[in-house]
Amino acid sequence: MYPVKPIPILTYHQIQSAPARGEPMRSLYVSPAAFARQMQILKVLGFKGLSMTDLMPYLLGERSSLAERVVGITFDDGYLNNLENAAPVLKEYGFTSTCYVVSGLIGKTNSWDADLGVASAPLMNHEQLRAWLGAGQEIGSHTQSHSNLLHIDTHRAAQEIAQSKLQLEQDLGVSVQQFCYPYGDYDSGHVKLVEQAGYLGATTTKRGRVAQGLQASLLELPRVPIVRSTSWLQFLLKIATPYEDKHR
Fold first, then answer.
1. Could you tell me if residue 4 is inside a domain?
2. 9-41 burial string, b = 16+ CB within 10 Å, else e?
3. Fewer Cβ close by (within 10 Å): the C or N end of the chain?
4. 201 domain residue, yes or no
């Protein structure tokens, strides 16, 4: 087994120009120009951008993250603007990524944000998800309805976790091996449900790079948030230094 150098897993949401100042969740928008610049920085520095499944051999120590500079790239929720504005850039640089899809809201909007006043944004439909897959990208599960797992009972949580996987696999004809906890909220019981459902990896909103020796925690992987205000210097610090680990 190879030693594991800390690996950053980047978190994105919408790749779109941000709404007006004062609008809720404005930080979760990264402009297409900023995203393209960030991917260019990765390429210039010799990083290989990978989906979560492609990243697994490095997380497990089966391939050396000392010999190869790797970074995970993830998108939460399944926004259409990921396909429109991120996929072409990823393809240009030969990167793969994972987009976590809410299986019960395919082709609809981010309705879970409505009570917060967040602007409605279209989610990819089945045809667009197939285009995402055809561009060499991966799809993971983000439950059926984007429910906060801590706010629902165990039976429903099990259904949200397991049925979303089955639904995506049946609808799209692909294996869905990756999961992401909505809002980053979960407990040890939910981790067990994710394992029982057959996922191989799961990401959280805990901050930090994946450190050496975390092979047993593949279902609770920390990530590195990339937001609207992330400057190019902060981006460098987040991916190449312990900067983000201090927030663990």
1. no
2. bbbbbbbbebeeeeeebbebbbebebbbebbee
3. N
4. yes
Phi and psi for 246 in degrees, rounded to 5?
-65, -20
Specify the CATH number for the domain of residue 37: 3.20.20.370
Q: Which domain holds residue 233?
A: 9-247
Q: How many domains does the chain have?
A: 1
CA distance 77 to 93: 23
Quick check: is 1 in a domain? no
Whole-angstrom CA distances from 164 to 58, 119, 159, 237 are 27, 25, 8, 35
From first to last of its 248 residues, what are the pLDDT tens digits of the chain? Answer: 555 689 999 999 999 998 888 888 899 999 999 999 999 999 999 999 999 999 999 998 888 776 789 999 999 999 999 999 999 999 999 999 999 999 999 999 999 998 888 889 999 999 999 999 999 999 999 999 999 999 999 999 999 999 999 999 999 999 999 999 999 999 999 999 999 999 999 999 999 999 755 545 899 999 999 999 999 999 999 999 999 988 77
Cβ burial of 187 (10 Å; 0-12, 13-18, 19+) is exposed
**CB contact at 8 A, 83 and 148:** no
Distance CA 92, CA 237 (A): 24
Q: In degrees rounded to 5, what are phi and psi of residue 201?
A: -150, 155
68 within some domain: yes
